[in-house]
Design brief:
- By secondary structure, the chain is α/β, with parallel strands linked by helices.
- It has a single domain, classed as Ribosomal Protein S5, domain 2, CATH 3.30.230.10.
- The chain contains four helices and five strands; from the N terminus they run αβαβββαβα.
- It is globular, with a radius of gyration of 14 Å.
- The N terminus is likely disordered.
Length: 124
């Protein structure tokens, strides 16, 4: 599941993927940022790593659209989380209907960076 080099795994901002339902439910009760194309939920964890989960409901569209939305969120997170995410935090990225797939990728990244900055201020 992880495509990290050995340097990235040992770094302060190692990135892991959330996979257990319990973690998604816990994040749903924490702080959230609601944007035009993405919803980001953030919750502190007891680990020293950043964990990220991705979800897209049937409101986003059929299986092809949901998978496309998750691929785009994964790619945007891979480029932004290490630099803008807060260590020891779980993030859940939720795709939004008709906008996650149709938004320009640079706008999706910008919104994700904005969400990370807002959520890191709230958690302090």
């Amino acid at each position: 599941m992880e495509n990290l080099s050995s340097e990235d795994r040992n770094s302060k901002h190692a990135l892991e993927t959330l996979s257990k339902r319990v973690d998604f439910i816990a994040a749903s009760k924490a702080e959230k940022f609601i944007g035009k194309s993405i919803i980001v939920q953030a919750r502190p964890n007891s680990l020293e790593t950043i964990r990220v989960g991705y979800t897209a409901s049937k409101k986003v569209g059929n299986a092809v659209m949901r998978n496309r939305a998750k691929r785009r969120m994964r790619a945007a997170a891979a480029e932004t989380v290490a630099q803008y995410g807060t260590s020891s935090t779980d993030y859940v990225l939720i795709g939004r209907a008709e906008s996650t797939c149709n938004t320009k990728f640079k706008d999706l990244k910008f919104e994700l960076i904005h969400a990370f900055k807002k959520l890191s201020v709230r958690q302090k």
